[in-house]
Design goal:
With 104 residues, this protein is mostly helical. The chain has helices at residues 10-27, 35-43, 49-66, 76-94; strands at 30-32, 70-72. The chain contains 4 helices and 2 strands. It has a two-stranded parallel sheet with strand order 1-2. It is globular, with a radius of gyration of 15 Å.
Length: 104
């Protein structure tokens, strides 16, 4: 799990996720009916804006490419896959074996 953005409360973080999902709704003629579930599960795995974007961007892409409209439920399977990738990327970036060139 990633560490929280400095100065962010859980309410601020949930609002950040919600704003990303609302941006998708504003761009396309759709309504994400399980926004609260998506926000809660996302907060369980990541606590920073980069993590939120890592979830929102593929969802936005999926809506655009597939022409999704109307009431939409983000499938748990899709959300699980995105969250798994976010966590995997975080561990690769911040793992204990990570060193910068020239540092010892």
């Amino acid at each position: 799990m990633s560490s929280p953005d400095p100065g962010s409360s859980p309410g601020d973080l949930r609002a950040g996720i919600a704003s990303h999902l609302q941006m998708i709704e504003a761009r396309y003629p759709l309504t994400i009916t399980n926004k609260d579930q998506v926000a809660g599960r996302t907060l369980g795995k990541t606590h920073d804006q980069r993590g939120f974007l890592s979830i929102a961007l593929p969802l936005n892409h999926r809506a655009a490419v597939n022409g999704i409209t109307g009431e939409v439920v983000i499938p748990e399977k899709v959300l699980d896959l995105l969250l798994q990738r976010v966590c995997q990327n975080r561990s690769n970036i911040r793992g204990p074996s990570w060193t910068l060139p020239g540092s010892s």
